[in-house]
Amino acid sequence: MYKHIKPVLMILTGAFLFSIAINYFAIPNKLAEGGFTGIALVLHYLFGYSPGTVILVMNIPLFFIGYKVFGKRALLYTILGTVSVSVAVWLTAGDYKPVGDPLLAALYTGVLIGGGLGLIFRAGGTTGGVDIIARMVHKYWDWSIGRTMFLFDLLVIVGSTFIIGREKAMYTVVAVFVGSRVIDFVVEGLNTSKAATIISSKAVSISEKITWEMERGVTLLKGRGGYTGTDKEVLYVVVSRNELPKMKQLIHSIDPYAFVVVHDVRDVLGEGFTYDRE
Question: What membrane topology does the annotation report for this chain (predicted)?
């Protein structure tokens, strides 16, 4: 039970953030959304239906279909995420006043929806809807999941233009874009580390220096020069952002002509990062 407490709390917290975004920012400022949430908002504007109820009703048939796609554990978290979002949207509903600046409302909507969905996704759940459809399309027709979700969201937003107007639809696009960036930020992790690929004729010496002086693991890979055809050893190492300058100095002190490529990595797992070294 203990291992399920953290993801469940993350899903509940994410559902609450999502509901605040919908009820406090999106609905009072008459913004739409992508996916099933966008459809629920359009039906709310037209007929006054509760968005939480509509989201839940539309997802129920997909739960049975999605069992073959997700598996038992993921489907349970998906059901929990969808039900939590629906209940939270219903509980936090109220007659809130619109924000004076619609751009500000769009930004806050995107940040809160992205933060909420990011927590739910990070916990291993989803809010159902287009995510289930996209995974089924990918499984049976080999379509990209991202492409399917983008096309569905675009279709919903374009359709909502006739209800909320062109200007509010454009603000909705801003909210959706901001939300997608925040989701990536939350899911991929808050701490950015650095990975380096090092090509040098003194690879062994560099490896020993990094291992003993920085206490970081180094992986040696076999490579071959494309022009010379000679065999070379390629080093791969992951360090924290603060350790990057020291690593560069160590490499330069041994081989000033070493070829080094550094790039960002997120959510590093393993010894020295997520748990202490023995």
Answer: Multi-pass membrane protein
Cβ contact 161:198 at 8 Å: no
200's CB contacts (< 8 A; 6+ apart) are 206, 235, 251, 254, 255, 257, 258, 259
Side-chain-side CA neighbours of residue 129 (13 Å): 25
H or E element at residue 224: strand 218-224
Among 155, 139, 153, CA closest to 65: 139
- Could you tell me the two tokens for 223? 């490579």
The whole model's pTM is what? 0.76
Handedness of CA 178, 184, 186, 192 (dihedral sign): negative
> Residue 156: its pLDDT value, please?
93
Sign of dihedral through CA atoms 106, 109, 111, 113? negative
231 strand-pairing partners: 224
Q: What is the pLDDT of residues 163-215, one digit of tens each?
A: 999 999 999 999 999 988 888 788 766 666 889 999 988 999 999 999 998 88
Per-residue CA distances from 143 to 78, 134, 137, 138, 146 (Å): 22, 8, 6, 4, 9
